[in-house]
């Protein structure tokens, strides 16, 4: 049987992720089964990975608890350490802490040692699309041009690495705090002493948090995007964390599944099957 | 709205591909599989809805059943009340404007509302025109009884559609009728495209009085090009699952919850039924012991002028 990837199907952008996954698998010529997950039996059959889609995290949390899926999900993420990717509400569910939650609080799955800030930019009027340079996509075959298999039809929606990624932020969260001392910037990794880093990982028994992308000059870019103005914006501070990875857990604030751009899905599948 | 009216149907198609529309329809996509609840006060009702797992709330002063009972002109809610609800919950907050009342829409947009419902539940302000919705930053949801009506609203800029049903009755029959009609119309469009191509689509668009490009897109997709929720008469978990099995993407519930015996329990049950709409065992479990359902009004006993669904075109 082909490797199975699930999409948590309580609510939200389920079919969109399933479609993007299927397209990405086809472009890699990989045989992957994609299923909806609503029960622990379905979760168990996901040997290759799981996506937690965008939606309302308050509802996802409640639905998971009601079906007794919260503990199996925690085990899947933290004990079995299978590949998991959360987008938007999914990122909230995969964080250890969340702020700006509803009055009675909210249960999370966890897995990322970070604090996430819900509805960071505000209400729907503050939602925006912005072009991001995602450096981590550079080495992915998703970024090579159509000469690398896939055929003309499959590569029609693919974009070379030089093109920025159209990132949609819809009432989006950002990571506003790292809860682990091992946090480091992915780009800075080569400069660190690998032996010492390995030691630290062993001591903590958890992999480090890798910051994969920040939103540069978020205030300026947010306003520019809101006004429909493109062009360079001056960075302000380090920027908000909007894509990150910690071992098997990957999270993004934005919604690649709402675009025709499958580069992030291709990249994620490559991480799984490499 | 920068769109030149001379661009006609092509202008519509390109509008729907721009990033501003995608952000609006994208929020609707994130609500799929969820329940949106009418709430009339912040402290209790809105919090009950959020705790029950609602994906959004609709802020209004009176639920449709009360609007129906009390009569008079129904208008946009007091902004103060909308702000209180926005402060009480973390989920998206929607609010209703009267059909054609673009100034109520401007006010709701200024309040940073997450979604505007141009709704037949309120008394229409314009008997000829709906609001031109494309120019607003806030996304819109509109009611429909059939596919042509849905496509006319999408042409005007609606990012989400719902059945009209018959609000405030607790009788699901009209919502079922409208959803079946949408499905039937889509099947006709698909058949027309298959048998007669563009020519047949244009002929059907003429009969439907809707945009041909949008009709073709619908025929190719085999569904509405935006998210489509059920509304107007959903009162039980089984009603919600029925609408989901008929192909709706989610459910609006108003009077059905807060005119029943145990609102919190019923709200939770309808959310659960919408999530697990194909699992009859779960439906049996969440239909059990909910207390008194909304008494309701049978739509078949109503006169035409008592129905809200006939408002708008």
TrEMBL record, chain A:
Mitochondrion is among the record's keywords: no
Gene3D superfamilies (alphabetical): 3.40.50.880
InterPro entries cross-referenced by the UniProt entry: Class_I_gatase-like, PdxT/SNO
Keywords, comma-separated and alphabetical: Glutamine amidotransferase
UniProt superkingdom: Eukaryota
PANTHER family, sorted: PYRIDOXAL 5'-PHOSPHATE SYNTHASE SUBUNIT SNO, PYRIDOXAL 5'-PHOSPHATE SYNTHASE SUBUNIT SNO1-RELATED
Protein name: Class I glutamine amidotransferase-like protein
Organism, scientific name: Apiospora marii
TrEMBL record, chain B:
Pfam families for the chain: SOR_SNZ
Associated pathway: Cofactor biosynthesis; pyridoxal 5'-phosphate biosynthesis
Residue ranges annotated for the PdxS/SNZ N-terminal domain, each copy included: 21-231
PROSITE patterns: PDXS_SNZ_1, PDXS_SNZ_2
Gene3D superfamilies documented for this protein: Aldolase class I
Catalysed reactions listed for this entry: aldehydo-D-ribose 5-phosphate + D-glyceraldehyde 3-phosphate + L-glutamine = pyridoxal 5'-phosphate + L-glutamate + phosphate + 3 H2O + H(+)
EC nos: 4.3.3.6
Keyword Oxidoreductase: no
CDD domains xrefs: pdxS
Alphabetized UniProt keyword annotations: Lyase, Pyridoxal phosphate, Schiff base
The keyword Phosphoprotein is assigned to this record: no
Similarity field: Belongs to the PdxS/SNZ family.
Protein name: pyridoxal 5'-phosphate synthase (glutamine hydrolyzing)
Organism: Apiospora marii
Lineage, highest ranks first: Eukaryota, Fungi, Dikarya, Ascomycota, Pezizomycotina
